[in-house]
Amino acid sequence: MRSYTSSTGVFPLRNFPNCPRATLVEGSERDYRLVLADDATSRLHDVGRTEMTGIGVTLLPADAIISAVRTAEIDRRPV
After folding, report:
1. What band does 6 get if pLDDT is binned at 50, 70 and 90?
2. By C-alpha distance, which of 35, 43, 44 is closest to 62?
3. Helices first, then strands: H and E counts in the chain
4. Handedness of CA 38, 67, 12, 29 (dihedral sign)
5. What whole-number distance in Å separates Cα of residue 24 and Cα of residue 32?
6. What's the CA gap between 78 and 14, in Å, rounded?
7. Distance (Å, rounded) from C-alpha 18 to C-alpha 37?
8. Which residues contact 34 (CB under 8 A, 6 or more apart)?
9. At 75, which helix (H) or strand (E)?
């Protein structure tokens, strides 16, 4: 991600207890801003939500993430 000069990762991952959890933990250890599409992630339970928000992951519905990305794309267009 650093090669793209990005400090934010958005993760629309599926099966929380496996790869998404590990990816988010490692990303937080590297001081990335992290967003998880909570309504697009299976097996994300209350304990997992608490764990993720506790390490700084922002939980948002997929529609809110899509809207934010679209807005960011508009803001970056050359004038």
Report:
1. low
2. 35
3. 3, 3
4. negative
5. 9
6. 35
7. 15
8. 8, 9, 10, 11, 24, 27, 28, 56, 57, 58
9. helix 62-75
Asked if residues 34 and 11 have their Cβ atoms less than 8 Å apart, the reply is: yes
User: Alpha-carbon distance 39 to 61, whole Å?
Assistant: 5
Distance of alpha carbon 8 from the chain centroid? 8
Give pLDDT tens digits for 26-40: 989 998 888 899 998
pTM above 0.85, yes or no: no
Would you mind telling me the total number of residues written for the chain in this entry?
Answer: 79
Strand, helix or coil for residue 17: coil
